[in-house]
Design a protein that fits this description.
With about 180 residues, this protein is mostly helical. The chain has a single domain, classed as Tetracycline Repressor, domain 2 (Orthogonal Bundle). It contains nine helices and no strands. Helix 8 packs antiparallel against helix 9. The chain is elongated.
């Protein structure tokens, strides 16, 4: 049952989400190495046996947390891109939404470096998210190369920013310079 593609009853789907919620809290609080299957089960209020019915290992729970997290990032970026306003404002809002959620969630964790180092466990999903946003930005800008450059530049801005406000201001300034309305 560890795959997200399997159709679950509403009760089992709710239990799976509860486990993912607990796993996310544990990974953010204790890091990947410090989180145990037992800890996730306890945080979710279930037995370890029940947890294993949904996720065969801690890695599988981490992958489920990451999949949901990346979908949240994608949804927030797409919603901002599709919103009202000037093109440059929508592009900036989309990039700030994506990077801001990452900044607020993962980088706020005392285990941010470890969680970000665990990218190898979810590299395909991370790459797919980046590629999807690059393609979408390229379409919005009518320039695939500009979409790629803009996205990659904002990854660097996000990684180097000391605060979320600094990140948002730098992304806004970059988009204003690169995106004509």
């Amino acid at each position: 049952m560890s795959g997200a593609n399997i159709s679950l009853s509403p009760l089992k789907a709710a239990r799976r989400e509860k486990i993912i919620d607990a796993a996310e809290r544990m990974f953010l609080s204790y890091g990947f190495r410090g989180t145990t299957v037992e800890g996730i089960a306890e945080a979710a209020g279930i037995s370890k046996v029940t947890l294993y019915a949904y996720f065969h290992a801690k890695d599988a729970a981490f992958e489920a947390v990451a999949a949901r997290f990346f979908e949240t990032l994608r949804t927030a970026a797409m919603a901002a891109l599709g919103g009202p306003g000037r093109r440059s404002a929508r592009v900036a809002a989309a990039l700030i939404a994506k990077h801001g959620i990452l900044f607020d969630t993962v980088r706020a964790s005392p285990h941010a470096a470890e969680l970000l180092a665990a990218r190898a466990k979810v590299a395909a999903r991370l790459d797919a998210l980046g590629t999807g946003l690059i393609v979408t930005l390229g379409a919005v800008l009518n320039d695939a190369q500009a979409g790629r450059i803009l996205y990659n530049a904002t990854v660097g801005i996000s990684d180097a920013a000391a605060t979320r406000n600094d990140m948002a201001a730098d992304i806004t300034r970059l988009v204003a310079a690169m995106v004509p309305d």
